[in-house]
Amino acid sequence: MANSLTNMVGDYLFEQRIHTDTVNVESLAVRIAPLLAQSDTEALYEELTAAGGEMGGRLMVLDRYGKVQVDTYSELNGVRVDYPEVASVLVRGDLADYGVHPLDGVGEILKTGNFLLSDADAFNWVGYCTAGVIDHSDVIGVVLLSSPVQTMMANLYELRDQMLVIFIAVAVIAIIFCLVFSNIITKPMTALTKSIQNMARGDFSVRVKVRGSGEMRRMARTFNSMSEKIESLDQARNQFVSNASHELKTPLATMKIMIESLIYQPEMEVGLRTEFMTDINREIDRLSSIVTDLLTLVRMDVRDVKLSRENMSMAALIKDTKHLLGPMIKKRSQTVTLSIQDDCDMYADRTKLQQVVYNLMENAVKYTQEGGEVNVTLQRVGRDAVLTVKDNGPGIPAEHLPHIFDRFYRVDKARSREAGGTGLGLAIVHQLVMLHGGEIHVESEEGKGTSFIVELPLHLG
Questions:
Q1: Residue 251: is its pLDDT beyond 80?
Q2: Rounded to two decimals, what is the model's pTM?
Q3: Quick one: average pLDDT of 147-161?
Q4: Are 416 and 434 in contact (CB under 8 A)?
């Protein structure tokens, strides 16, 4: 690029000189044409000497064969020269030509290719300007002006060297800038790649630093968010497997003890044997209930549950559920009050919503003390049906509320197992409500009871 720019500058600097020298040489060629035709060498010499002083260079006249007839320096008289500028006039038929050449110590033109690639101080630089001498439309010779251009070439090479230094400095700065800039860009990408590799190896706790701005910052935040969710899911999976194993192991261990007692005590009393068999049957029912609930949750996790929607009345569903729980309510001497302000007709899966209502009302009855009260309220709020199941039981401590819908989570583990719960009921309720596009949340204060509020959209078929 430096050489290209130097060539452009050189062309600009030489343009004026070429034009001036060419005009002068062509004018001289016209004046000496009669003298050359007459072979008047003395007159030619006088004319060339006078013109050479004005032009500031060495003048020669060559005949049509390229032989020097007159040389103002009187060194090449009678010598044939083969300068390219002479050949362009005599051979190609050009009217004039100009060229710059480096000369060796004896004045011979050096074949250096692009002269701008050479050292200016190593050679003598000259400019050759030629013009044809024409007599009666016939080229009878050539006028050659040889003028020194050493100063101009030195300036060009100095300019070239300066531009080379500038370009090299700019290139170095650009490379350093690119390295620094690329390091700034690639460092977060490298850290992100390593984090992804660590995650692929099972380390879901990995996080990346949020740096910079724009896309990189958003990418880091997105990755950290994804990593947190995956870690949370992994922990939930591990906790789920642990809880499921524990829940399944407990009834199995109980049954094993009872069965071993039956095996090793063949003379056991009939009443005690019957009691053992009843307990085993109850544990089998509990196992079956856990497995059924687990399968239900798994199907909902993989989105394999489809809603069989129909036009139904939420009010009728609540009344039916109270009727089904009648024996349990009577046994515990409790009062269940229904406050139905609207039928809340909707287009939904009746079976699954019945499971929601049944689980909530059963829990309220099951975990409220004997003689307690349960209030069930149904009302229309805008386009939603709002179901509230409230009891005056012991309530739920505040630290347990965020986990109340977690799988296998129990506030009072011993009491929950005694009541026959699997720890999956509220998790299933939560999933079924979400499946219908609704929301569920809990409000509770220890010692003052608990309220479960379900909001379901009133889609009509």
A1: no
A2: 0.48
A3: 77
A4: no
